[in-house]
Amino acid sequence: MDFVDLLDKEINGTIVDEVLEKTAVENCGAQSVFIGRTRSDSHNGSRVLSLNYEAYRSMALKEIERIVMDCRTRWNIVNTAVLHRVGEVPVNKISVLVVVTSPHRRDSIDAVTFIIDNLKQKVPIWKKEIYDNETTNWKSNS
Q1: Beta bridge partner(s), residue 87
Q2: pLDDT tens-digit map of 68-110
């Protein structure tokens, strides 16, 4: 099972728990998780208050699905979930959730790393930093 979505609502603990439960499998001993949160960085003396994500939705979903399919050719994985926020995400709130379930830990750990690295490089999702001095700045994914 692969679950991929862009959400305009908060990815909170309840959603994380639901995703973990849905991706768990009795014959799999590994479930690796990456949670990316908005961090309070400084830029030219101003502090980041939030990130505003925008996406080319249909293309972003297709590209995430391609990344997951590529994972399936490289590692023995059973279930995946990739959720990314769109809209405003305040500091310390979840921007992205990646979960991979596999029989053994190495496959799930490597797959999670592959997914998040490729998500940042290839998926048409853009972020704008919003600062405490009311200025903004578009940032490239890296």
Answers
A1: 53
A2: 999 999 999 999 999 999 999 999 999 999 999 999 999 999 9
Q: How many other CB atoms sit within 10 Å of the CB of residue 81?
A: 23
0.85 exceeded by pTM: yes
Residues 19-74: pLDDT tens digits?
999 999 999 999 999 999 999 987 788 999 999 999 999 999 999 999 999 999 99
List own/partner pairs for 40-49 with CB under 8 A and 24 or more apart.
Answer: 40/91, 40/92, 41/129, 43/129, 43/131, 43/137, 45/133, 46/131, 46/132, 46/133, 46/135, 47/131, 47/132, 48/91, 48/129, 48/130, 48/131, 48/132, 49/90, 49/91, 49/130, 49/131, 49/132
